[in-house]
Structure formats: structure tokens, C-alpha cells
Amino acid sequence: MALNKNRDAAVLYINHERHEVRGEEAFMMLADYLRYKRGLVGTKIVCAEGDCGACSVLKASYLNGRSEGFEVINACIISVAQLDACQIVTVEGLSEGGQLSAVQESVAACHASQCGYCTPGFVVAITACLESGKKDLNEQKIKNCLTGNLCRCTGYTSLIEAALKAQPSVQLSASLASRYLPDDRQKDLKAIAGIPLEISFGDKTFCAPVLLKDALQLRSKMPLTLMASGSDLGVMINKGKANPKTQLSLHLLPDLYKIDQDQNRLTFGARVTLTELRKICEKTVPEFAKFLNIFASPQIKNIGTLVGNVANASPIGDTVPFLMVADTLVHVASSRGTRNIPLTEFYLAYRKMSLEADEIIASVSFAIPKQEDRLRIFKVSQRKDLDISTVNSAFLFRMKDDHPSVVSEARIAYGGIGPVIRRFPAVETFLVGKALEPKVIDQALGMIQGDILPLSDVRGTSAYRRNLVDGMFRRFCEELGQKATHQGAEQHV
Ligand SMILES: Cc1cc2nc3c(=O)[nH]c(=O)nc-3n(C[C@H](O)[C@H](O)[C@H](O)COP(=O)(O)OP(=O)(O)OC[C@H]3O[C@@H](n4cnc5c(N)ncnc54)[C@H](O)[C@@H]3O)c2cc1C
Ligand code: FES
Ligand code: FES
After folding, report:
1. pLDDT tens digits, residue range 223-242?
2. Which of 219, 249, 279 lies at the terminal end of a domain, its last residue?
3. Is residue 294 part of a domain?
4. Fewer Cβ atoms within 10 Å of its own Cβ: the N or the C terminal residue of the chain?
5. Does residue 1 lie within any of the structural domains?
């Protein structure tokens, strides 16, 4: 390949050992590599889809120049190559000198394990939660940390009790960062991240440039599969539905980790994770931040990116309805130059984007809703946590200053209603200047229903989806009538 070849091995630390991984092993999912190549069998594999958390491990890196400390991830859907320049800690790395960690002790003392298959994953996820420095941990916060972990026999009460009981001891113990990120290792990880990587095995190549211009040049020369964090692709590979031969990873491109904020807009580079997005939005767009609580699990949000969610072009992608009502621009780059595409014009057909073969999405930016905007985001799925939407939606309305019941601007976006997530400009125009009275709401919904073609599938029939479309808009209007502010996303199951 055209890269100045400098490294032919992914370099990562697993617990206290430094590994240079080449050839076939670099293309293995981390969980397989840990179990079958390193004998670290504490990491289990159950679903291999990111759904159960049995494969949870901890990851830290300096790739974004602002290390987030250790975060929990799923090792089953991310390849070793994708974890280049990272420090990984497995469940075996939590104990020290033969002494169980405080969380391990607590799980045993609270009898929080029966068959034990899920236990290492829970221990790792609880450790991440307690190490994250979250203040005032309570039962609900622990539950939020554990949405990515399933236990089929013990039940969660004793696991939550174990987490709460372990908290004081964890605070007194040496942090994972002090044990696993000494200065010399930090220096090494940072140095590794500055060297381009190209790994080949058979007909497969994994390529990670350190300069955006090199990435764009490669993209212009040959068909490549882009990997932001590769979480979606990891699932497809495990299911045998994808076998990308030439992978272009964005993980060594510092520009793509940038987050920019001015008074009006927020911009997120293509490697910014959903966890980072949620953190920034806590203050700037609290409704979106709250909504992201019910997006996937901590494990997925710690690797999955906003741009990956936009670029997988799913008709039920959960960030997209909000982005659609928030004047989002998709910032695209190629070796020919850059262009900005309004998200409302980005999806052309089912999974088809307005993106040329040589282009990549460099970042996505959206307008921060104003204080006076009424914003609500809804998601209905078959279960509350870690589930795919049946229908999702976002409504951003502004009301007249002198007549607060009259609409001055309306934006409506729905997902799960056809091949793409989209706005409803005719309905939005119809609503301007009108009070949201029952007759107007019925008329608006009549227009929306006449303009959608929801599918029937395992997540719901077309008729059910139409009911959800109805219910979400009526709920929003009811809240507006009650002068709801833009606080508090909610999920209905
Ligand atoms: C267990 C699980 C739960 C999930 N739950 C949810 C959920 O609740 N809601 C939801 O909406 N989604 C959910 N997802 C999907 C979620 O969208 C992704 O996991 C994540 O946002 C994708 O980010 P990524 O960085 O891993 O993307 P990747 O897997 O790297 O990429 C996704 C797609 O985008 C392309 N791509 C990546 N980067 C670029 C770029 N810069 N330019 C152009 N194309 C690019 C890739 O080639 C690929 O086709 C879930 C996934 C899993 C595995
Ligand atoms: S094995 Fe289930 S999430 Fe990885
Ligand atoms: S202890 Fe058996 S699945 Fe949790």
C-alpha cells in the first residue's frame, strides 16, 4: 500500500505486558486473542455481538490527547489492530500480588455469582464505574453502569449490593491508572500513536495513517472499508456478514478527535465517542445527554462514535432524529477538498448517503438549541436498555413570544418510518402561526401519516409504528401545553 511503512504490528499493553501483534492475530477480535493466544480466559464470550458484557475489559489510551482514564469496552467486537496504542486491563489484571481486588472480594462476599459465566464481566464493569470518580453513587447510578451486562441466574440485587459495598475500599485502593499507566508507559503509548501502521495477512490489510492527507490519498486510490471504532463492523464480521479486505482505521488521526464549541455550534470529529458526546451535552443540550443514557450501553458508547452512528445510515439510528432538527452539517473531506452537507440532504435512500467513494466524514456539527427552544427526543424499543429503536423522533419547536401557545417555528424528525430518518417540511410549515389545538394536531398527524411507509418486522407491525408516531407527537404537544421546558428525555417501553 502507499503508506510510508513504519510499523507492521499493533502495539498494546495487556495488563503488565507489552505486545506487538502482527499478521493474522492482529485481525482477531480482542476477546478471542485474549482467550486463545494469551490464555487469559477470565474474559468470556457469550453473544459476540456487544449485547451481554461477558467479554468486558478496561481500556485507556492517549489517542485523543486527553486520556479519559480507564473505560469499559466489549472485547468481542473490536479487533486487536483497532486497539493499537492502548492499555488493556483484563479481569486477571485487577487482583494484585495474589490478592483479590475490592470489587472481586465484594462480589464473593455478597454471593453475587452462581454459574459465574457473567461474573468477570460484571467485576470489570463495576470496577470501571467505581474508578470513574462518579460522585454520590447510588443504586440507580450503579444500574446505569451495568446496562451492558447480563446475568441469567444470580439476579442484579446482590451485584448492586456488592458494588455499593466495594465503593469505600476502591476509593482507598491504588487506582488502576497509578498501577497501569506509569510515566514510561504513557510515553511509550504516545510515541506508538505517532507512527503509521500497516498490517497484512493473506488478502487482508489494516492500515492506519497518522496524517489526514495520507488517509484521503489512500481513500482516493482504492476501495477501503472505513473504521471509526469498528463496533458496527465488528458485529457484522462476527456474524459472517462482512469480511472487509482493506480496512482504513482512523484511530491514529489526531484531527479526528477534536471537539469544538462556540456560542452556537458544537463540532465532533469522526473519532469522538458517544461517551464524550454525552459529557459535552450534559451542560449544552441536556435533553440529548439524557437521551444518550438509553443509547446502547457504556461499553458501546465508550468506543462507538457519533460519526459512525451517522455513517451507518440506519433508518433507526438514535442520534439522527435530534441531529436532523438541530441544523446539522456533515463535514466531508477528500483529496479534492472539503464540503459541508446539511444532514437533511445527506440520506438519499436506504443506507445510501450523499458521499463520494473518495470522501470521508471528518466531523459533524450541530446548532446548540436556544434556551427558549422546546426540544424533546423519544425512543420506543422492546426493552428499556440496550435495545434498538422501533420508532424514534425529535421535536424542536419555538413559540411566539407574545402568544406562547402559537408556534413560530417547528421541526419534526422521525426514524423507523421508512427507508431513511427524515424531517417533514410541509407539516412544519403548516404548523407555523397556529396554536396546537386538537384539530391542528389531528391535521398535522394526518399529513405525517400520509407521508410515511413504516415496515412490519420483528420489532413491530406497520400499524404499531403508526401508533407510536401518533403517540410521540401528541405527547410532545401535551407537554408544550403544560409549558414543558427542554429538560428530561424519556423512554416508553
Ligand atoms: C450492542 C450494540 C448496541 C447498539 N445500540 C445502539 C443504539 O441504542 N442506538 C443506535 O442508534 N445505535 C446503536 N448501535 C450501533 C451504533 O451506531 C454504533 O455502534 C456506533 O455508533 C458506530 O460507531 P463506530 O465508530 O463503531 O462505527 P464503525 O463500525 O466504525 O462504522 C460504522 C459505519 O460507518 C462507516 N464509517 C465510519 N466512519 C466513517 C467516516 N469517518 N466517514 C464515512 N464513513 C464512516 C463505516 O465504514 C461503517 O460502515 C449499537 C451497536 C451495538 C454493537
Ligand atoms: S460476548 Fe456478549 S458482549 Fe461480548
Ligand atoms: S451468574 Fe450465571 S449468568 Fe450470571
Report:
1. 899 999 988 999 999 999 99
2. 249
3. yes
4. C
5. no
pLDDT over 80 at 247, yes or no? yes
**Number of other CB atoms surrounding residue 265 within 10 Å:** 15
Angle, helices 438-449 vs 462-481, to 10°: value is 150
> Does the beta carbon of 45 lie inside 6 Å of ligand 2?
yes
60 and 133 share one domain? no
Closest-lying ligand 2 atom to the alpha carbon of residue 150? 2
**CATH number, domain containing residue 442:** 3.30.390.50
55 close to ligand 2 (CB < 6 Angstrom)? yes
Print the domain residue range for 259: 254-367
* SS3 category, 159: helix
* Residues written for the chain: 493
Nearest to 493 by CA among 375, 374, 386: 386
How many domains, in total, are found in the chain? 4
pLDDT in tens, 92-151: 999 998 999 999 999 999 999 999 999 999 999 999 999 987 667 899 999 999 999 999
Residue of 28, 55, 385 to test ligand 2 pocket, by largest number of atoms within 8 Å of CB: 55
Q: How far apart are the first and last CA of the chain?
A: 49
Q: Which-ligand-closest: CA of 117?
A: 3
Q: Please work out whether the CB of residue 52 comes within 6 Å of at least one atom of ligand 2.
A: yes
Q: Are 321 and 347 in the same domain?
A: yes
Q: Is the CB of 53 under 6 A from ligand 1?
A: no
Residue 146 sits in a domain whose CATH number is 1.10.150.120
Instruction: Verify that 353 and 378 share a domain, yes or no.
Output: no
Mutation choice for ligand 1 from 232, 385, 393, CB with most ligand atoms inside 8 A: 232
